[in-house]
Amino acid sequence: SVTYDVADLYDRFSSEVGIDGSDGDPKAEIEFFVYGDGRELWNSGIITAANGAVPVSVNIKGVRKLTLKVITSGGQSAYVAADWAYARLSGLSNE
Question: Cα Rg for the chain, rounded, in angstroms?
């Protein structure tokens, strides 16, 4: 997981999430989470390589600390290449 100080400056976090094409385990299963100030705002459910890219668009208005987290499941190895592609913050809240 990684946490960013977004200081209530943005309205939306967007991305596309999925398992990197370089990962060789077709059984790999992961789950993506977005937290705002410690509260879960979004989760992907279980994703496999077959899902391809899954779009994410989360309202983060009022959020000061944004946390992106990935967990593995399904008993595969602890390492799975997870991607947050095209991640971006938008819509300045103070406008």
Answer: 14
Please give the distance of CA 44 from its chain centroid, rounded to a whole number: 8
Q: Can you tell me the distance from the alpha carbon of 75 to that of 87, in angstroms, rounded to the nearest whole number?
A: 28
**Are the C-beta atoms of 30 and 80 separated by less than 8 Å?**
yes
Q: How far apart are CA 59 and CA 4, in angstroms?
A: 15
Tokens linked to 93: 């809240």
Task: Quote the pLDDT of residue 95.
Answer: 53
What are phi and psi for residue 64, nearest 5 degrees? -100, -40
d(CA 36, CA 86): 19
Distance CA 15, CA 41 (A): 14
The 3-state DSSP class for residue 16 equals strand
Residue in the structure block whose two tokens are 């279980």? 46
61-90 pLDDT, tens digit per residue, is 999 999 999 998 765 555 778 899 999 999
